[in-house]
Amino acid sequence: MQTNFFRKIIFDEKSRSLLIQTLVIGLFALFIYLITQQTAYNLEKRGISSGFDFLHISAGYDISIRLIPFTSEDTHLRAYFVGLLNTLMIAVCGCFLATIIGFLVGIIRLSSNWLFRNIAYVYVEFTRNVPVLVQIILYYSILLNLPKIKQAIVIFDNFYLTNRGFFSPSPIFKDGFSIVAWSLVIAIIFSFFLKRFLKKKQEDTGKQYPTFMINSAIIIFTPIIFYYIMGMPLEFDRPVLKGFNFKGGMVIRPEFLGMLFGLSIYTAAFISETVRSGIISVSKGQREASQALGLKSNFIMRLIIIPQALRVIIPPLTSQYLNLTKNSSLGIAIGYADLVHGFGGISLNQTGRAIEIMMMVMLTYLTISLTISFFMNIYNKSVQFKGNA
Amino acid sequence: MSSTTIQIISRNKYYNWLVKNLFSSWVNTILTVISLIFVYQVGSFFLNWAIFDADFRYNFQGELIIDRGFCSKNIMPGEYGACWAIIFARWNQFMYGLYPIEEAWRVNLIYALLPLAIIGILFDKIPFRRYFIYFTFIFPFLAYFMLYGGPGLSVVGTNKWGGLLVTLFLGVTGIGLAFPLSILLALGRRSKMPIIKSLCVVFIEFIRGVPLITLLFTANVMLPLFLPDGVNPDNLLRALVAVTLFQSAYMAEAIRGGLQAIPRGQVEAAQSLGLSYWQTTRKIVLPQALKIAIPPIVNTCIGLFKDTSLVLIIGLFDLLGIGRAALADMTWTKLYYEVYVFISLVFFIFCFGMSRYSLYLEKKLKTDNS
Known about the structure:
The complex is a heterodimer.
Chain A: H1 2-11, H2 13-46, H3 76-108, H4 114-128, H5 132-144, E1 153-155, E2 159-162, E3 165-168, E4 170-173, H6 177-205, H7 211-229, E5 234-237, E6 240-242, E7 245-247, E8 250-252, H8 254-281, H9 284-292, H10 297-327, H11 339-351, H12 354-383
Helix pairs in contact in A: 1-2, 3-8, 3-11, 4-8, 5-8, 6-7, 8-10, 9-10, 10-12, 11-12
Chain B: H1 2-21, H2 26-52, H3 85-89, H4 91-96, H5 104-122, H6 129-148, H7 164-189, H8 194-209, H9 212-226, H10 235-260, H11 264-272, H12 277-307, H13 319-328, H14 336-369
Helix pairs in contact in B: 5-6, 7-8, 7-10, 8-10, 9-10, 10-12, 11-12, 12-14, 13-14
C-alpha cells in the first residue's frame, strides 16, 4: 500500500509535477526567508536604517543637466525625477538619431555601388564590435578637446562649438505665439483629413493627387502666415561672450552630446543590419512585379518594399530601442546626470539606502522597457499581414 | 597567342567589374568619386596620425620615450601624430594589471593555453577533438590554480588582477558559468509546470529589462548584505556573479529560440520509444536545439564580452579601467586618443573574430541542412 503511494507519486505525471513544484516553491521561500533575515541582521549590525523616508529630505547636491528646476535643497524624490527625465531625454533623442542613421546606412549597404556600400560595411563592423562605453568615452574626450570658450568655433555667427558644449540662441516666445503654435497643430490635423479624403477620391476616380506636396505646403505655410499676421512674436536670445563664459542663449553640454553620439552611432550599426536584412527578405518577385506594372522606382520602394520589410524590421528594432535605453545608464562614466548617476549614485552614497534605491532604479527601467515593448507591439500588429490570409 | 587572349579576357573582366560596380550610371559615378575622396581623406588622416607621423617606442630623435614630453610632436592630440609610447610603457598593466611582474609567466601560460581549451568546442572536425574537450574541463581548475596560486605558487589576490586578464576572465568565466544555467532556464521557461515556468519567465524578463550596470551595482553593494558574516566575496567575484546572471538570461532566450525550432514530432517520437523527459531532452532535443542556437549564442557572447568594460564603473581595472588609470598619470595626460583607440582595437579583434566565427557557423549549418 505504502509502496503504491510512492510509486504513484513518482510515476504519475500529475502528482510528480505537483511534488516538484511544491519543493521548488518551498526552497524558493526558504531562500527568500534566509536572505531577508540575513539582510535585516546585517543592516541592523551596521546601523543602516531602512524605509523610504529619505525621499523627502533634501538631496544636498546639484545637478547641472536638468529639464526641471533643481537646487541642492530639493528632495531626493525630485532628484529621482530629474534623473528620470534626463534618462528619457537621452533615450528618445538617441533612438531618433539612431533610427535615422541606421536606416540610411542600411539602405547604403544595399547600394549597387561597391565602394559606397563597403564604406557603410566598414562603419558597421567597426562600431558594433567596440563596446559602447569605450565609444561614449572616446567621443566625449573628442568633445572636450574642442577649442576653449575664447577660441570657440563659430557657426553662422550665432552658434558656438566649444569644449563646454554647443551654445545656440534660445527662442523667446512673446504674446500671440501660442496662436502660431495652434495654427500648426490645426494644419497637421487638417492635412491628415485631407489625405484621407484625397485617398478616397483616388480610390473612387483613379485620379492621382500630389497629396504629399499639398500637405507639406499646408503644414509649412500656415504657421508662417500666422507668424507674420501676429506680428512676428518670436525673438532669439543670443549667447554673448561675457568674461569666461557665454551669457544667454542655451547650451547643449558635451556630456549629453557624448552620450547621444555614442549611443546612436553604436545602436545605428545594429539597426542598419536589421534594416538591410528586412529589405533583403522582401522577395525579388515583388520588385519585378511592380516594375512590370510600370511603377516608378521611388513608388516601388515606398509602396511595395518598405511596408513588407517593416514586418521583419520592427521586432528587432524594438529590442535595439530597449538596448539603447538600457545603455543610457552608462552616463555615469562621463558624468551625464541620468537616473543611475544622480539618484542611483550620489543619493545612494549620501543616504546609504542601497536596497530601496536600487529597487526603485531597477523597477523604473523595467517599467520603461515594458512600456516600449508594449507600444512597439501595438505598432508591430498594425504593420503585420492583415485579413484572413 | 594564347597569352594575349587571356589578357584581353582578363582586362575585360576587370573592366566589366568596374563598370558594373562603380560606374554603372552617372549617379553611381558621382557616388564613386565622392566615396573615393571620403576614403582618401579619412584614410590618409588616420594613417598619418596612427603610423606615419606617430612616435612609437622611440621618438624621431631616437630617444626612448618615458613621458609625453619626449614625443617629438606632442602638444595637442589630433593635430599631430600619435604617441604610442604610452601603450608600450603601460603594456604590462594592459596585459596583467598589477599582477606581480615576476609571476606574469603564469598569466602568459594561461593566455597561451586558452585557445587550446576552447578549440575543441568551436570546431567539430579537428583531430584528437576528444582530448581537447577533456582539456576544456580541466582548464578552469588549472587556470584557477595558475592565476590565483596555491600549493607551490604564491597567492596573487584578485585585487591585483587587471587589464586584459580581468576582461578575459569575466568574459570567459561568465560565459562558461552562464551556459549550464541558461539551459536550465530555457528548459524551465518551456516547462509545463506553471510555477517553474513563471519563476523562469520572471527571472529572465527581469534581468533583460534592467541595465547591466544596475545589476553590477546591486551585486557590489548588496551581495555583502545578503550573505552571512564570514562570507565576503571580493569585488571581482561580485562582478562575476552579476555578469553570469546577466548572461544566463540572454543566453536562455537564444537557446529557447533553438528549442522552439525543434519539431514536435521529435519529442513525440522519443516519448513513444519510452524515453523519459531527461533522456528526451539530453539525447534528442538539446543536441539539435543547441546546434541551431549557436549563432545567436555567439552573438550574446560578443555582447557580454563588450559589456565587461562596464566593470570600470564599479571600480575594477579591466582594459578600459587600466587605460583610464594610465591617463590619470601626469606624465601621460592628453594621450586619450592613443589609449582609447588601442582599447577599441583590442575589443575589435576579439569581437570581430567571434562574429566571423558565428558567420562561419551559419554558413556551415545552412549547407548541413540542405
